[in-house]
Amino acid sequence: MFIFIFRVKVAVRVRPFNSREKDRRAKCIIKMQDKMTMIANPDAPSKSHDGFKENNDGTFDAVSGSKFASQRTVYNDLGKGVLNNAFEGYNCSLFAYGQTGSGKSYSMVGYGPNKGIVPIICDELFKEIASNTKDNKRFEVTFSMLEIYNEQVRDLLAKDNPKGGLTVRQNAKLGMFYVEGLKNTPVGSYQEIEKRMEQGTAARTVASTNMNATSSRAHTVVTITFDQIIKDSIGSETKKSSTINLVDLAGSERADSTGATGDRLKEGANINRSLSALGNVISALADVSMGKKKVYIPYRESVLTKLLQNALGGNSKTVMIAALSPADINYDETLSTLRYADRAKKIKNQAVVNENPLDKLIRELKVYNRCFSYIG
Ligand code: ADP
Ligand code: MG
Questions:
Q1: 10: enclosing H helix or E strand
Q2: pLDDT tens per residue across span 211-223
Q3: Could you say which residues form the signal peptide (predicted)?
């Protein structure tokens, strides 16, 4: 078995100004040059990222000379790689980090015609499946969607959820955490996934804060399992599997900047608990990658880090989108997001192609038997 080392890939995306920032005459403090993102002193603003136009179908595209990144551009830069890795049999994870209103959900799920990276990946996945002409190959895809809210797991595709949420358990043999009883639905087309995703999105827990009236205060995790079953010339089957985790994290802002009180403040504390646990895990993993020995990785600190264990420090090719507001008024949160991203960039993961060993063994035995009968 080959083990490959991969760095976590980090992409920074800056959205255009929103109306609140325009009303407050905010200045742009983010500058991007090649692969570098710079945050400027709020007293020395730079050019904004607002140079986009609306096409006839309602999608947004960059106007010439602008640094606006369309949904297609983001898919081409990040999503395509995720899809290719899935076809090769690697586990993949993509997660969006950033303060509320910075464009995490826009990047992951999208709004209206501006579909995000998750629907585009799913669409392209089924297009690729449809273009397969080999009849010795079949595909199996499943879809699940959950949210973590106040440290409790809710199945977004289930009619009812138990009080206190679903239980997170650890597989005794493999050590991985999983959600017990989570609905994992087989899907046969992009339309089916789209339907499930709409159902799941509608079931999310939504609470408004001053920062963004519709933004969710929960982490949303979509998991797609993708199996390719390949029959060889002597009729035995090998399964290549990939688990794709797509995570839209809750807003990373500190509770005090959103004017939250009471229950909302408690939520904020819980969100920050899991996000700071995520930060601790990322830091520890970055230390390991830089050669530090005997580092304890605190996956158990939160539900989020338990479920992201494989995505962060295990068998996965991982991408993080750091979503930013361009505005000077968000300087503190933007700086903290960039610091987070910078730490995540240091993590190296060990990814393997997941091929079902049992089938492989059977195949090898059969070849062996055949050779044997030739001799006989
Ligand atoms: P978050 O999920 O981080 O709280 P959203 O994704 O909901 O934030 O984005 C907040 C608002 O900004 C939405 O109205 C969205 O349409 C807009 N927006 C975010 N990113 C972009 C972008 N890259 N281009 C255009 N509009 C965007
Ligand atoms: Mg959101």
A1: strand 9-14
A2: 444 446 789 999 9
A3: none
User: Is 219 a pocket residue for ligand 1 (Cβ < 6 Å)?
Assistant: no
Whole-structure pTM value: 0.85
Determine how β-strand 9-14 pairs with β-strand 317-324: parallel
Q: Whose atoms come closest to the Cα of 218: which ligand?
A: 2
Query: Does the active-site annotation cover 58?
Result: no
Query: Which residues are bridge partners to 224 per DSSP?
Result: 143, 244
Taking CA atoms only, the protein residue closest to ligand 1 atom 23 is 15
pLDDT at residue number 61: 82
Residue 248 structural domain: 4-375
Protein residue closest via CA to atom 21 of ligand 1: 15
Structural domain total, the chain: 1
Mapped onto helix, strand or coil, the DSSP state of residue 7 is: strand
Q: DSSP states of 82-93 as a string?
A: HHHHHHHT--EE
Tokens (6 digits) for 224? 């797609």
CATH code: domain of residue 36:
3.40.850.10
Given this model, what pLDDT does residue 271 score?
A: 63
Q: Residue 18: CB within 6 Å of ligand 1? A: yes
Query: Residue 212 Cα, ligand 1 centroid: separation in angstroms?
Result: 10
